[in-house]
Amino acid sequence: MNQDLILLPLFAMFLLTFCIGLLMLKLRFKAVKVDGLNPGYFLLNKGAKLPDYLAKVTNHYANLFEFPVLFYVAGLILYAGHKVDGLYLVFTWAFVVARCIHAYIHTTYNTIVHRRRAFLSSTLILFCIWTRIFIQVISGLI
After folding, report:
1. Are 142 and 81 in contact (CB under 8 A)?
2. Using H for helix, E for strand and C for coil, what is the string for the chain?
3. Structural domains of the chain sorted by starting position, each given as residue range(s) with its CATH number in brackets
4. In whole angstroms, what is the distance from residue 118 CA to residue 62 CA?
5. Which of 40, 58, 66, 99 is 20 to 30 A (C-alpha) from 17?
6. Distance between CA atoms of 44 and 13, rounded to whole angstroms?
7. Taking the complete model, does pTM exceed 0.70, yes or no?
């Protein structure tokens, strides 16, 4: 199996993070220009109430630097350990899809029940990845 294939879902997560960052930047300009948010707010991110449309995208952007970090670490462990196989590729792409769905829900209509399902799906997938890595480690396969 080509080990480099594991890098594609990692790049896809980077692209998702980058796109959410660009969306956040666009919405920051809108909040200042249209809604009158004081640009000084962004010095320390305090002193004003963000419009809801910006708050949810800002929160989601921050979220992409929390839980998904474990995804990147797992991907790099698999890549460095030459353990990439078809099942890991399915898991990693499924994680990316679940996170894209989560991002769409969180940054658009933001229904908590739908968002929770997407989040929990990605959590379960990541748990499966890490469990399999752990089993391989304790089995002496990595």
Report:
1. yes
2. CCHHHHHHHHHHHHHHHHHHHHHHHHHHHHHHHCCCCCCCHHHHCCCCCCCHHHHHHHHHHHHCCCCHHHHHHHHHHHHHCCCCCHHHHHHHHHHHHHHHHHHHHHHCCCCHHHHHHHHHHHHHHHHHHHHHHHHHHHCCCC
3. 3-138 (1.20.120.550)
4. 17
5. 40
6. 27
7. yes
